[in-house]
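Homework help board

Subject: predicted structure for assignment chain

Our instructor gave us this sequence and asked us to write out the predicted structure in token form, then describe one feature. I got the tokens but I'm not sure how to describe them. Can anyone check?
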Amino acid sequence: MTAFVRVGVIGAGFMGGVHAEVVATHPGAQLGAVHDLDAAAAQDLADRFRADRAEPSWESMLADPSIDLFIITTPNGLHHQQAAAALRAGKHVLVEKPLGITPEEVAELVDLAGRHNRILAHGSNFVHSPKFARARQLVADVEAFGRPHLVRVVFRNSGPEAGWATSGELAGGGALLDLGCHAVELCRWLLGGAEVETVSARLQQVRTPQGGDAFRKSFTTGTAPDALEDQALLVMGFVGGAVGQCDVSWATQGGEQVTAEVIGTRGRVEVDLWTGMGLRAYSAKGYQDVWNPEQGWVYPEWEWIRASGYHHQDHAVIEAVGQGIPLAHGPAQALASAHVLATGYRSHTEGRVLRLSGSPGCSDASKPPGSW
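My token output:
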């Protein structure tokens, strides 16, 4: 039996707008309410996508029995608190990445969702991208591709626009957490959910150097630094011998890069999310309405929300809530990524390769190494 799904969006910024637009395209869903600390922004988003109303607080949205699904697009540091409250209130939840700052936060949300029998989904849009999904199919063709032995995922840009993203308290981490949660998940997913055995990472502050000792100490003491890492390289050793590389950066000029490469014993697959859009344009001055305006040739985005997987992701969540269709990609994957990222931060602090704990997607049953 299909039930109509009413959705509440918490956060009326850029990502709130993306999710509101996608919800508006689903025939089985309606945007019921929007909340943001900026009341004018909430009202504008509600008006644009014909929501019933803008709410003065997210807590008042929780008390509304007509709202079935909450989409949380607030700063990272609020995700756990708001998602936990929504699950306890009996709501289904989709949380923008990362699902939580630490593995412990993510594990608690997974437990709450199970105990309250609610859908818990996380921002994993790139595994829903049609282009990456096609790449995964090609890698899975054993006869043609052979055994995959190297996967490399790159997420690079010139830094987040939101001011809170560079606050240790609100962001919880820098480029490794912000982009690495996508990169780690995509690496594992392209290999069919491969188990991670070892992790090593090297973090840098390219644009805002504070001194190596202060930067390193922040991870040792378990506190987010005031100036966050803006570049990181994380290497995973998978059970079976394959190697995964996650190259993430907030310090790269020349436009955003989202690419993946998988190499097998008989084949090779390369994916480039943006330059494969089939459209490019030239300007010596630069187009101001291109997402990453640069001089010279650029690749103006079109239908980028669909190409990036948001339509497929959000529609799958709506159908899980309204029709009972199980999620193909669930929060256990976010928990596995959280363990990898936490171990990566610790690897940087200790300057060595670390074995991973016995979490989902991890092969070693030893005591968890902890999180920063």
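Reply (TA_rk): Your tokens look well-formed. For the description, you could write something like this. The radius of gyration is 20 Å. That's the kind of observation they're looking for.
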